[in-house]
Design a protein that fits this description.
Elements: H1 2-8, E1 13-20, E2 27-33, E3 42-44, E4 49-54, E5 59-64, E6 70-72, E7 84-90, E8 96-99, E9 102-103, E10 112-119, E11 131-140, E12 148-158, E13 163-165, E14 168-171, E15 176-179, E16 188-192, E17 197-201, E18 207-209, E19 217-227, E20 234-243, H2 245-261, E21 277-279, E22 287-303, E23 324-325, H3 330-334, E24 340-341, E25 349-350
Parallel strand pairs: 1-22, 16-23, 16-24
Antiparallel strand pairs: 1-2, 2-3, 2-6, 4-5, 4-7, 5-6, 7-8, 7-9, 8-21, 10-11, 11-19, 12-17, 12-18, 12-20, 13-16, 14-15, 17-25, 20-22
Length: 359
Protein backbone atom coordinates (compact mmCIF):
# COMPACT_ATOMS: atom_id res chain seq x y z
CA UNK A 1 0.00 0.00 0.00
CA UNK A 2 2.81 2.41 0.85
CA UNK A 3 4.50 1.74 -2.49
CA UNK A 4 1.29 2.55 -4.38
CA UNK A 5 0.87 5.83 -2.50
CA UNK A 6 4.44 6.79 -3.32
CA UNK A 7 3.96 6.01 -7.02
CA UNK A 8 0.73 7.96 -7.28
CA UNK A 9 2.36 11.21 -6.11
CA UNK A 10 5.23 11.24 -8.60
CA UNK A 11 5.08 13.08 -11.93
CA UNK A 12 6.12 10.78 -14.76
CA UNK A 13 7.39 11.44 -18.25
CA UNK A 14 4.72 10.01 -20.52
CA UNK A 15 5.66 9.00 -24.06
CA UNK A 16 3.22 8.08 -26.83
CA UNK A 17 5.51 7.24 -29.75
CA UNK A 18 4.53 5.52 -33.00
CA UNK A 19 6.80 4.80 -35.98
CA UNK A 20 4.96 3.22 -38.92
CA UNK A 21 5.33 2.41 -42.61
CA UNK A 22 2.52 4.81 -43.61
CA UNK A 23 2.77 8.51 -44.42
CA UNK A 24 1.67 11.04 -41.80
CA UNK A 25 1.22 8.51 -39.00
CA UNK A 26 4.63 8.64 -37.27
CA UNK A 27 4.69 10.91 -34.22
CA UNK A 28 6.00 11.30 -30.68
CA UNK A 29 3.84 12.90 -27.98
CA UNK A 30 5.49 14.03 -24.74
CA UNK A 31 4.01 15.27 -21.49
CA UNK A 32 4.31 15.03 -17.73
CA UNK A 33 1.53 13.09 -16.06
CA UNK A 34 -0.44 14.53 -13.18
CA UNK A 35 0.75 13.84 -9.66
CA UNK A 36 -2.46 11.85 -9.36
CA UNK A 37 -1.93 9.19 -12.01
CA UNK A 38 -5.67 8.51 -12.29
CA UNK A 39 -6.14 12.12 -13.38
CA UNK A 40 -6.18 12.92 -17.10
CA UNK A 41 -4.59 16.35 -16.56
CA UNK A 42 -1.10 16.58 -18.04
CA UNK A 43 1.59 19.16 -18.72
CA UNK A 44 2.92 19.38 -22.30
CA UNK A 45 6.67 19.17 -22.84
CA UNK A 46 7.90 21.69 -25.39
CA UNK A 47 11.41 22.37 -26.75
CA UNK A 48 12.51 18.75 -26.41
CA UNK A 49 15.06 17.18 -28.74
CA UNK A 50 13.60 14.05 -30.34
CA UNK A 51 15.01 11.77 -33.02
CA UNK A 52 15.07 8.18 -34.35
CA UNK A 53 18.27 6.32 -35.15
CA UNK A 54 18.19 3.28 -37.43
CA UNK A 55 20.60 0.32 -37.55
CA UNK A 56 22.65 2.03 -40.28
CA UNK A 57 23.20 5.16 -38.21
CA UNK A 58 20.69 7.34 -40.09
CA UNK A 59 19.16 9.98 -37.82
CA UNK A 60 15.61 11.25 -38.40
CA UNK A 61 15.11 14.44 -36.38
CA UNK A 62 11.56 15.27 -35.29
CA UNK A 63 10.35 18.84 -34.90
CA UNK A 64 7.66 20.19 -32.62
CA UNK A 65 4.41 20.76 -34.49
CA UNK A 66 1.76 23.41 -33.95
CA UNK A 67 -0.20 20.76 -32.07
CA UNK A 68 0.99 20.91 -28.46
CA UNK A 69 3.27 18.11 -27.23
CA UNK A 70 3.49 16.46 -30.68
CA UNK A 71 6.80 15.96 -32.53
CA UNK A 72 6.80 14.98 -36.20
CA UNK A 73 9.34 13.79 -38.80
CA UNK A 74 9.63 15.29 -42.29
CA UNK A 75 6.48 14.82 -44.35
CA UNK A 76 7.80 12.05 -46.61
CA UNK A 77 9.24 9.92 -43.80
CA UNK A 78 8.04 6.32 -43.44
CA UNK A 79 9.51 3.39 -41.56
CA UNK A 80 10.77 0.37 -43.47
CA UNK A 81 9.91 -3.25 -42.76
CA UNK A 82 13.04 -5.03 -41.55
CA UNK A 83 14.72 -1.87 -40.28
CA UNK A 84 15.50 -1.36 -36.59
CA UNK A 85 14.85 1.94 -34.84
CA UNK A 86 15.85 3.50 -31.53
CA UNK A 87 14.10 6.54 -30.05
CA UNK A 88 16.10 9.28 -28.29
CA UNK A 89 14.58 12.10 -26.22
CA UNK A 90 16.19 15.00 -24.39
CA UNK A 91 13.85 17.22 -22.34
CA UNK A 92 14.60 20.91 -21.63
CA UNK A 93 15.81 20.10 -18.09
CA UNK A 94 18.65 18.00 -19.56
CA UNK A 95 17.10 14.59 -18.85
CA UNK A 96 17.77 12.05 -21.62
CA UNK A 97 15.89 8.91 -22.54
CA UNK A 98 16.54 6.04 -24.92
CA UNK A 99 14.40 3.17 -26.17
CA UNK A 100 15.49 -0.35 -26.85
CA UNK A 101 16.03 -1.07 -30.58
CA UNK A 102 12.73 -2.12 -32.17
CA UNK A 103 12.52 -3.90 -35.53
CA UNK A 104 9.56 -3.29 -37.83
CA UNK A 105 7.96 -6.57 -38.88
CA UNK A 106 5.73 -7.17 -41.88
CA UNK A 107 1.97 -7.40 -41.48
CA UNK A 108 0.29 -10.03 -43.66
CA UNK A 109 -2.59 -9.05 -45.91
CA UNK A 110 -6.15 -9.18 -44.63
CA UNK A 111 -7.49 -11.86 -46.96
CA UNK A 112 -11.13 -11.83 -45.98
CA UNK A 113 -13.55 -9.99 -43.70
CA UNK A 114 -17.02 -11.19 -42.74
CA UNK A 115 -19.64 -9.50 -40.58
CA UNK A 116 -22.30 -11.34 -38.63
CA UNK A 117 -25.20 -10.00 -36.57
CA UNK A 118 -24.94 -11.40 -33.06
CA UNK A 119 -26.89 -10.78 -29.89
CA UNK A 120 -25.53 -10.41 -26.39
CA UNK A 121 -28.45 -11.96 -24.54
CA UNK A 122 -27.30 -10.68 -21.16
CA UNK A 123 -28.59 -7.25 -22.25
CA UNK A 124 -32.32 -6.60 -22.58
CA UNK A 125 -34.13 -5.18 -25.60
CA UNK A 126 -33.66 -1.45 -25.85
CA UNK A 127 -30.10 -1.68 -24.55
CA UNK A 128 -27.65 -0.48 -27.24
CA UNK A 129 -25.18 -3.18 -26.21
CA UNK A 130 -27.57 -6.03 -27.05
CA UNK A 131 -27.36 -6.11 -30.85
CA UNK A 132 -24.26 -5.66 -32.96
CA UNK A 133 -22.29 -6.87 -35.97
CA UNK A 134 -19.11 -8.76 -35.16
CA UNK A 135 -16.31 -8.52 -37.73
CA UNK A 136 -13.96 -11.46 -38.32
CA UNK A 137 -10.80 -11.56 -40.43
CA UNK A 138 -8.76 -14.32 -42.09
CA UNK A 139 -5.03 -14.04 -42.80
CA UNK A 140 -2.00 -16.23 -43.33
CA UNK A 141 0.33 -16.04 -40.34
CA UNK A 142 4.01 -15.98 -41.45
CA UNK A 143 6.32 -18.85 -40.50
CA UNK A 144 8.65 -16.45 -38.69
CA UNK A 145 8.66 -16.82 -34.92
CA UNK A 146 7.50 -14.02 -32.64
CA UNK A 147 4.88 -12.21 -34.70
CA UNK A 148 2.37 -10.09 -32.79
CA UNK A 149 -0.66 -8.16 -34.02
CA UNK A 150 -3.06 -5.42 -33.08
CA UNK A 151 -6.32 -4.36 -34.74
CA UNK A 152 -7.67 -0.82 -34.61
CA UNK A 153 -10.37 0.88 -36.64
CA UNK A 154 -11.92 4.25 -37.48
CA UNK A 155 -15.53 4.89 -38.40
CA UNK A 156 -16.59 7.89 -40.49
CA UNK A 157 -20.12 9.23 -40.90
CA UNK A 158 -21.46 12.44 -42.34
CA UNK A 159 -21.96 15.13 -39.74
CA UNK A 160 -25.56 16.35 -39.58
CA UNK A 161 -24.57 19.43 -37.60
CA UNK A 162 -21.28 21.21 -37.00
CA UNK A 163 -22.15 23.33 -33.95
CA UNK A 164 -24.35 22.49 -30.99
CA UNK A 165 -24.86 25.55 -28.80
CA UNK A 166 -26.12 24.89 -25.27
CA UNK A 167 -27.50 27.89 -23.32
CA UNK A 168 -26.96 30.26 -26.23
CA UNK A 169 -26.38 30.90 -29.94
CA UNK A 170 -23.53 30.79 -32.45
CA UNK A 171 -21.57 34.01 -32.88
CA UNK A 172 -20.49 34.07 -36.55
CA UNK A 173 -17.99 36.88 -35.93
CA UNK A 174 -16.18 34.98 -33.18
CA UNK A 175 -16.85 31.55 -34.72
CA UNK A 176 -17.97 30.07 -31.43
CA UNK A 177 -21.05 29.48 -29.30
CA UNK A 178 -21.85 32.23 -26.78
CA UNK A 179 -24.16 32.05 -23.79
CA UNK A 180 -27.30 34.14 -24.10
CA UNK A 181 -28.37 36.60 -21.45
CA UNK A 182 -30.41 35.24 -19.83
CA UNK A 183 -29.15 31.73 -20.76
CA UNK A 184 -31.42 29.74 -23.05
CA UNK A 185 -32.59 26.30 -21.97
CA UNK A 186 -32.80 25.17 -25.61
CA UNK A 187 -29.91 23.60 -27.52
CA UNK A 188 -29.49 25.18 -30.96
CA UNK A 189 -27.90 23.03 -33.66
CA UNK A 190 -26.29 24.46 -36.80
CA UNK A 191 -25.75 22.47 -39.97
CA UNK A 192 -22.32 22.37 -41.67
CA UNK A 193 -21.42 24.85 -44.41
CA UNK A 194 -19.37 22.21 -46.26
CA UNK A 195 -18.86 18.46 -46.43
CA UNK A 196 -17.99 17.14 -42.99
CA UNK A 197 -17.50 13.76 -41.35
CA UNK A 198 -17.49 12.73 -37.70
CA UNK A 199 -14.84 10.19 -36.68
CA UNK A 200 -15.20 7.42 -34.09
CA UNK A 201 -12.25 5.28 -32.95
CA UNK A 202 -12.07 1.74 -31.64
CA UNK A 203 -11.85 1.74 -27.86
CA UNK A 204 -10.99 -1.89 -27.10
CA UNK A 205 -7.42 -3.23 -27.01
CA UNK A 206 -7.36 -6.12 -29.47
CA UNK A 207 -3.97 -7.89 -29.65
CA UNK A 208 -2.83 -11.36 -30.68
CA UNK A 209 0.38 -13.41 -30.51
CA UNK A 210 1.42 -16.28 -32.81
CA UNK A 211 2.98 -18.14 -29.86
CA UNK A 212 0.88 -21.27 -30.45
CA UNK A 213 -0.25 -20.71 -34.04
CA UNK A 214 3.00 -19.83 -35.81
CA UNK A 215 2.78 -20.18 -39.60
CA UNK A 216 -0.88 -21.24 -39.64
CA UNK A 217 -3.79 -19.72 -41.49
CA UNK A 218 -5.80 -17.68 -39.00
CA UNK A 219 -9.54 -17.73 -39.66
CA UNK A 220 -12.41 -16.05 -37.87
CA UNK A 221 -10.38 -13.73 -35.65
CA UNK A 222 -12.81 -11.18 -34.22
CA UNK A 223 -11.44 -7.68 -34.66
CA UNK A 224 -14.41 -5.34 -34.16
CA UNK A 225 -18.04 -5.03 -33.12
CA UNK A 226 -20.20 -2.54 -35.00
CA UNK A 227 -23.19 -1.05 -33.13
CA UNK A 228 -26.76 -1.67 -34.28
CA UNK A 229 -27.81 1.97 -33.92
CA UNK A 230 -29.06 2.41 -37.49
CA UNK A 231 -29.91 0.39 -40.59
CA UNK A 232 -27.57 2.41 -42.81
CA UNK A 233 -24.28 0.93 -44.01
CA UNK A 234 -21.42 1.41 -41.54
CA UNK A 235 -18.14 2.67 -43.03
CA UNK A 236 -15.03 1.30 -41.32
CA UNK A 237 -11.28 1.67 -41.92
CA UNK A 238 -9.64 -1.39 -40.39
CA UNK A 239 -5.91 -1.60 -39.66
CA UNK A 240 -4.05 -4.84 -39.03
CA UNK A 241 -0.75 -3.92 -37.37
CA UNK A 242 2.33 -6.08 -36.94
CA UNK A 243 3.60 -4.88 -33.58
CA UNK A 244 6.74 -5.70 -31.60
CA UNK A 245 6.91 -8.06 -28.64
CA UNK A 246 7.40 -5.16 -26.24
CA UNK A 247 4.30 -3.40 -27.59
CA UNK A 248 2.28 -6.63 -27.34
CA UNK A 249 3.28 -7.12 -23.70
CA UNK A 250 2.43 -3.50 -22.92
CA UNK A 251 -1.02 -3.59 -24.56
CA UNK A 252 -1.81 -7.04 -23.21
CA UNK A 253 -1.12 -5.76 -19.70
CA UNK A 254 -3.38 -2.77 -20.26
CA UNK A 255 -6.08 -5.02 -21.71
CA UNK A 256 -6.12 -7.27 -18.66
CA UNK A 257 -6.16 -4.34 -16.27
CA UNK A 258 -8.93 -2.45 -18.06
CA UNK A 259 -11.06 -5.60 -18.05
CA UNK A 260 -10.53 -5.81 -14.29
CA UNK A 261 -10.83 -2.10 -13.48
CA UNK A 262 -13.13 -0.59 -16.10
CA UNK A 263 -11.19 2.19 -17.85
CA UNK A 264 -7.64 3.06 -18.82
CA UNK A 265 -7.43 5.70 -16.09
CA UNK A 266 -8.36 3.14 -13.44
CA UNK A 267 -5.39 0.87 -14.06
CA UNK A 268 -2.49 0.80 -11.59
CA UNK A 269 0.47 3.01 -12.47
CA UNK A 270 2.90 0.12 -12.75
CA UNK A 271 0.79 -1.40 -15.55
CA UNK A 272 1.62 1.58 -17.76
CA UNK A 273 5.35 1.70 -17.10
CA UNK A 274 7.23 1.45 -20.38
CA UNK A 275 8.61 -1.87 -21.60
CA UNK A 276 11.15 -0.25 -23.90
CA UNK A 277 12.02 3.33 -22.86
CA UNK A 278 14.58 4.04 -20.12
CA UNK A 279 16.16 7.13 -18.60
CA UNK A 280 19.88 7.50 -19.31
CA UNK A 281 20.45 10.30 -16.81
CA UNK A 282 18.44 8.60 -14.04
CA UNK A 283 18.28 4.80 -14.44
CA UNK A 284 15.84 4.52 -11.54
CA UNK A 285 13.25 6.79 -13.18
CA UNK A 286 10.02 5.23 -14.44
CA UNK A 287 8.51 6.22 -17.78
CA UNK A 288 4.90 5.76 -18.84
CA UNK A 289 4.03 4.74 -22.39
CA UNK A 290 5.57 2.81 -25.24
CA UNK A 291 7.73 3.21 -28.36
CA UNK A 292 5.47 1.44 -30.86
CA UNK A 293 7.04 0.35 -34.19
CA UNK A 294 4.68 -1.36 -36.61
CA UNK A 295 3.66 -1.91 -40.23
CA UNK A 296 0.05 -1.73 -41.36
CA UNK A 297 -2.31 -3.49 -43.73
CA UNK A 298 -5.62 -1.69 -44.30
CA UNK A 299 -9.10 -2.73 -45.34
CA UNK A 300 -12.11 -0.51 -46.00
CA UNK A 301 -15.36 -2.19 -45.06
CA UNK A 302 -19.02 -1.29 -45.48
CA UNK A 303 -21.08 -3.26 -42.98
CA UNK A 304 -24.62 -4.05 -44.15
CA UNK A 305 -26.71 -3.47 -41.03
CA UNK A 306 -29.84 -5.11 -42.43
CA UNK A 307 -28.43 -8.46 -43.52
CA UNK A 308 -28.82 -11.26 -41.00
CA UNK A 309 -30.69 -9.26 -38.35
CA UNK A 310 -33.05 -11.35 -36.24
CA UNK A 311 -36.69 -10.62 -37.22
CA UNK A 312 -37.68 -9.33 -33.79
CA UNK A 313 -34.66 -7.08 -33.29
CA UNK A 314 -34.55 -3.34 -34.08
CA UNK A 315 -31.78 -0.74 -33.97
CA UNK A 316 -31.37 1.32 -30.83
CA UNK A 317 -30.87 4.88 -32.03
CA UNK A 318 -28.29 6.65 -29.87
CA UNK A 319 -27.28 9.60 -32.07
CA UNK A 320 -30.47 11.60 -31.67
CA UNK A 321 -29.81 15.35 -31.75
CA UNK A 322 -31.47 17.15 -28.85
CA UNK A 323 -32.83 20.64 -29.34
CA UNK A 324 -33.66 22.59 -32.48
CA UNK A 325 -31.94 22.81 -35.87
CA UNK A 326 -31.49 26.45 -36.86
CA UNK A 327 -32.87 27.33 -40.30
CA UNK A 328 -33.14 30.72 -41.99
CA UNK A 329 -36.12 31.33 -44.19
CA UNK A 330 -35.39 32.67 -47.71
CA UNK A 331 -36.41 36.14 -46.54
CA UNK A 332 -34.21 35.96 -43.46
CA UNK A 333 -31.29 34.70 -45.57
CA UNK A 334 -31.69 37.66 -47.93
CA UNK A 335 -31.37 39.93 -44.90
CA UNK A 336 -28.10 38.31 -43.80
CA UNK A 337 -29.31 35.49 -41.59
CA UNK A 338 -26.76 32.66 -41.26
CA UNK A 339 -27.57 29.09 -40.21
CA UNK A 340 -24.53 27.03 -41.17
CA UNK A 341 -21.16 26.84 -39.39
CA UNK A 342 -17.67 25.60 -40.36
CA UNK A 343 -16.47 22.02 -40.16
CA UNK A 344 -13.49 22.39 -37.82
CA UNK A 345 -10.72 19.93 -38.58
CA UNK A 346 -9.63 17.85 -35.58
CA UNK A 347 -9.24 14.38 -34.15
CA UNK A 348 -12.98 13.68 -34.21
CA UNK A 349 -14.02 15.61 -37.31
CA UNK A 350 -12.69 16.16 -40.83
CA UNK A 351 -13.50 17.94 -44.09
CA UNK A 352 -11.46 15.39 -46.06
CA UNK A 353 -13.58 12.77 -47.80
CA UNK A 354 -12.70 9.31 -46.44
CA UNK A 355 -11.04 6.92 -48.86
CA UNK A 356 -13.55 4.98 -51.05
CA UNK A 357 -16.47 6.84 -49.48
CA UNK A 358 -19.91 6.04 -50.97
CA UNK A 359 -22.91 8.29 -50.43
Amino acid sequence: MNDFEQISYVKFLTVDAALTDQLNTTKVILYRSSEDIANSVFKPISLAKVYFLDEKGFKEILTESSVAVTYLPVKNFIGKVGSTYTLFIETPDGSTYKSSPETMRSSPDIENVISRFELQDNFSKGDARRGGFNLYVDFQEPATIGDNYQWVWKHFERANTCSNCVFGTYNFRLNTCVISSPPSNLTLNYRCNSDCWNITYSSELNVFSDAYLNGRRITGKQVARVPFDSTSNYYLQLEQRAITRNAFNYYQGLKIQTQNNGTLFDVPAETRFSFNIKSITNPEAKILGIFDVYSIKKKIIYVDRIKGVAPDESPVYTNIIEGKVVECSPLEASLGCLDKTPCVEGRFRTKIKPEAWKD
